[in-house]
Each structure stands twice: as C-alpha cells, then as structure tokens.
Amino acid sequence: MSTRYKIHDQNALYFLTLTTVGWIDVFTRKECRDILLESLRYCQKHKGLVLNAYVIMSNHVHLIASAQEPHELSNILRDFKKYTAKQIKRHIEQSPKESRREWLLQLLQWYAKRTAGKKEFTLWQADNHPIELYSPTVIEQKLAYLHNNPVEAGWVERPEHYLYSSASNYYLGQGLLEVEVIDPLSDIGYLFMG
User: Fold this and answer.
1) For residues 122 and 111, is the Cβ–Cβ distance under 8 A?
2) Which of 38, 58, 61, 40 is nearest to 179 (CA)?
3) I want to staple 48 with a disulfide (CB 3.0 to 4.6 A). Which of 33, 68, 114, 156 is the partner?
4) pTM of the full predicted structure?
C-alpha cells in the first residue's frame, strides 16, 4: 500500500472513505445506517472524534474528521469499524425484516475467509483511504464531493435533502448528527495553525 494513503498525523483533518467488503450494499436498511450514526455519536462524545462532515451511502461512508489530542484518529476508526461490524452482524442475524439475511451472511463470511486475520465475519475493507486536507481549496472540493454523493447517485435532487448526510447541517443549520461546520476560508487558522 502506498504511504500516500496512511494517517501520518493522528490529529490532522482527513477525508476518509470507509467501504464495505466487496462494495456490498449493507446500508440500504435504515437500521444499519442508524447503527453507524449512533456509533459516530458515541465516538464524538467519548473517543475524541471531531466530525466535520459525513455521508452514509449504501456501501461506503465518507467522513471529514480529525481526533482531539490525546486521541488518535486511527484508533477511533478501528474501534468504530469493529463495533459497527458486530452490531450490523447482530442486526442481520436477528431482524425479522432482513430478507437478505442468508445471502448477506454468506457473502460477508466468504470475504472474511479471504481476509488475513479474519475467520467468521467481516464488514469493512481494511483501508480507510485517508487524504489529509491541507488547503482551503482541497477542503472545499472534498466537502462538495461528499455532500453531492447522494445527488450523483440519483437519490435526491439537492444535497440537503438526503437525511444521512451533514449537508443539512451546512445548508439548513441542523442534521441527524451534530458536526463542527467548517468554512475553509474563515476557519483557516483553526485548520492549519494546529
């Protein structure tokens, strides 16, 4: 793996992409999306996650985030992925609404057998594809890309209409999760002065 896609500064601002194994559409169910939201909320409150933007798609999640010292972003992401994988597995196994139960479990077990160190079940790809946000231009670009994902997918006409995104925080002032809204130009000191 290239060193370009590693978290070098554990407290810097990053654009992250967390993807399911095989790009499996696990997050089509509201209950699975809500598990992700609840875990992000927990990480904000108890693990030092500073969340600036997010979007939950059917098979991946984009975040713009950092970690408050002394916390490390890599550890937060590891714990988030471990916990959400367990909770989503439990949901798939126990929910009477999950019509894809057998198929999903077989597929996620199949990927687990092909992933080093995994035995029974895996949900997430190992990489988070971190890109450090080093300038206002890059921050603006990544914010627009993240918030426009549901529009590009054809799910909504405007970014703020998608419930599982921070676009409503940016455009309407509130959303499902609290985020620290950033304006790349006015927040230059906060972002780049440490």
Assistant:
1) yes
2) 40
3) 68
4) 0.91
What are the φ and ψ backbone dihedral angles of 108, each rounded to 5 degrees?
Answer: -70, -30
Helix (H) or strand (E) holding 94: helix 73-94
The residues with which 36 forms a beta bridge, in sequence order, are: none
Q: What stretches of 46-176 adopt beta strand conformation (E)?
A: 49-56, 60-67, 131-132
Say whether 15 sits in a helix, a strand or coil: strand
Whether the per-residue pLDDT at 3 is higher than 50: the answer is no
Single out the residue of 50, 59, 77 nearest to residue 20, CA to CA: 59
Beta strands in 112-178 (DSSP E): 131-132
Structure letter (DSSP) for residue 57: -
Cα Rg for the chain, rounded, in angstroms? 17
Do 104 and 92 form a contact (C-beta atoms < 8 A)?
Answer: yes
DSSP lists the bridge partners of residue 55 as 62, 165
Tokens for 19, please give them.
Answer: 């993807």
pLDDT digits (tens, 9 = 90+) for 145-182: 999 999 999 999 999 999 999 999 999 999 999 999 99
